[in-house]
């Protein structure tokens, strides 16, 4: 490749990258304004080249991640959405707030950190881990986004009235009439490697287990999706919904 051709390639790639960054900024600002967020969310328009997608009024994949969003009861959580095959015909690349946005596949998530969930449960030092079998699995979880299964999670912390760190096996589920309630059900005390390895006397077993029990309502997913999975990733609890052939508007990200 001649120097002149190489220079043209560098210029073309640079122009494409710069235009994509500007488009991501525009979308980030639009999402913030449409949802009354306190900071610009992270936005990524994936796949290359960007200008080819723009000319087709179609993005292959878009990611939106908004940290520290005010949430009922728990204080703050991260909201995420991943859109696949995004039709820009009505919204345009500037993403007009009330314009319909058809997407072939939509994923949305609420990510609740152990600190915020621990405060809600009254366990200030709460740590969350995936089920032991999955922690040793290099595939990273049971869903595409790396979320563990909903059964057998490991919650570790110091429950009130006991005074020692203990590890508990926990199942997660979604309930409530509108399926927006995260239900946390402890199922047993865990001891041995990779746990607090703290035994609990029989007379205190119910007290300890109940300290890890909880019901967290009003956890509506971005764009109103119905939850399809819940589990752990890192030390976070994640509620996820996946749907196909959806049409959304930007204000639905938070509301």
Briefly, what is this?
The protein is of the alpha+beta class and 255 residues long.
Structure report:
The protein has 255 residues and is α+β, with helices and mostly antiparallel strands. It contains five helices and eleven strands, in the order αβαβββαβαβββαβββ. It starts with a helix and ends in a 7-residue tail after the last strand. This is Mannan chain length control protein LmeA. Residues 138-150 have a biased composition (Low complexity). InterPro entries: DUF2993.
Structural descriptors:
255 residues, alpha+beta, six-stranded antiparallel sheet, 5 helices, 24% helix, elongated
Strand content: 35-45%
Order of helices and strands: HEHEEEHEHEEEHEEE
Which descriptor suits the 3D outline? Answer: elongated
- Average pLDDT level: 88
Q: How many H/I helices? A: 5
Distance between the termini: 52 Å
In total, the number of strands is 11
Protein name: Mannan chain length control protein LmeA
Organism: [Mycobacterium] kokjensenii
InterPro entries: DUF2993
Pfam families: LmeA (PF11209)
Topology diagram in text:
Blueprint lengths: L2 H33 L6 E5 L3 H6 L2 E14 L3 E13 L13 E13 H8 L5 E3 L2 H4 L17 E5 L8 E10 L5 E10 L11 H10 L2 E3 L12 E5 L2 E13 L7
Antiparallel strand pairs: 1-2, 2-3, 3-4, 4-11, 5-6, 6-7, 7-8, 8-9, 10-11
């Amino acid at each position: 490749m001649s120097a002149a051709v190489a220079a043209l390639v560098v210029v073309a790639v640079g122009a494409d990258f710069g235009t994509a960054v500007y488009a991501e900024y525009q979308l980030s600002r639009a999402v913030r304004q449409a949802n009354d967020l306190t900071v610009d969310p992270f936005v990524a328009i994936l796949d290359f080249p960007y200008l080819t997608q723009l000319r087709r009024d179609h993005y292959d994949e878009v990611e939106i991640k908004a940290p520290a969003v005010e949430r009922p009861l728990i204080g703050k959580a991260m909201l995420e959405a991943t859109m696949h095959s995004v039709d820009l015909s009505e919204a345009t690349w500037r993403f007009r707030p009330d314009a319909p946005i058809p997407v072939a596949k939509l994923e949305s998530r609420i990510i609740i950190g152990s600190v915020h969930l621990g405060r809600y449960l009254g366990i200030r030092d709460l740590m969350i881990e995936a089920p032991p079998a999955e922690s040793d699995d290099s595939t990273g979880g049971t869903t595409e986004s790396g979320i563990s299964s909903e059964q057998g999670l490991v919650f570790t912390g110091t429950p009130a009235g006991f005074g020692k760190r203990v590890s508990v096996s926990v199942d997660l589920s979604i309930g409530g009439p509108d399926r927006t309630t995260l239900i946390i059900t402890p199922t047993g005390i865990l001891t041995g490697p990779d746990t607090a390895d703290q035994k609990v006397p029989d007379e205190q077993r119910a007290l300890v287990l109940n300290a890890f029990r909880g019901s967290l309502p009003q956890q509506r997913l971005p764009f109103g999706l119905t939850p399809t999975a819940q589990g752990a990733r890192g030390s976070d609890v994640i509620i996820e919904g996946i749907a196909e052939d959806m049409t959304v508007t930007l204000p639905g990200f938070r509301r």
